[in-house]
Amino acid sequence: MGNRWSVLAVLFFIRATMAVQFQSVAAVAPLLSADFGVGLADIGILVGLYFVPGVLLALPGGAIGQRFGDKKTVLLGLVLMIAGSLIMASSSSWSGQISGRLMAGIGGVIMNVLMTKMVADWFTGKEISTAMAIFVNSWPIGIAISLLMLPPIGVVYGASGAYLAVAALIAVGLGLLVGSYSARADSTRAGRSNGRLGFHAAMAVFCAGLIWGLFNLRLYNDFRLWPLDAS
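Given the sequence above, the corresponding C-alpha cells read:
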C-alpha cells in the first residue's frame, strides 16, 4: 500500500477498534453487574485498568517498536488485545475479567504509541496536521460504535458475546494491517533517536497528559452512561 491516505484509513480503523474495546466494559456494565455481582466502583476500576499498563509501557513501547519494527510491534499489540477480549469472554470470575482487561490494555498501549509514529512517518512534510486530526478522531468514533453496537449484542448474547464481537473487529484490523500496510522506505532512518526526552519536551508532555486526564475525569463525572438496563 503506497498511498498515504489509504494507510491512514487502515490505521484509523485499527485505532477505532481500540476505542471500541476500551468502551466495551461501560457498554455492557449492567450485564457485568448482574453476572458478577459487582457495583459501580468495581466497574469503574475495570474500565480504568485498560490504561494502567501505559504508566510502565508507553516509553518502552517506543523502544520495542524501534528494535523490532513498527508493524510487528503493532501486530503484537493487536494479538494481545484479541487475547484479552477472549479471556474476558470465557472467564466466569471477576479476577479473569481483570486479567483479560490488563492484557488487552498492554496490547492497546503498545499499539497506540507506535501507530502515532506510523502516521507521522507517512505524513511528515505533507498534510500531517490534517492526518493527525483525522487519526485522533478515530477514538470518539470508536467509542460511539461501541455504545451503539455492543449493548444490543449484549442483550441477546450476554457480555461474552459482546467481547467476542470486539475480538472479531480487532481481528479484522489485524488482517488489514497484515495484508495492506507497508512502512515507508525512509521511515526507519527518519525514526532513529537517542531515546532521551529533554526537560521542556517532558514538561509539555506532562502538562498535556494532566489536562487530558482532568478533562476525562470531569467528563465521566458529568456523564455516567449506562446504555443498558439489565433488569
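The domain at 4-185 is CATH 1.20.1250.20 (Growth Hormone; Chain: A;). Try to locate this feature in the C-alpha cell string yourself.
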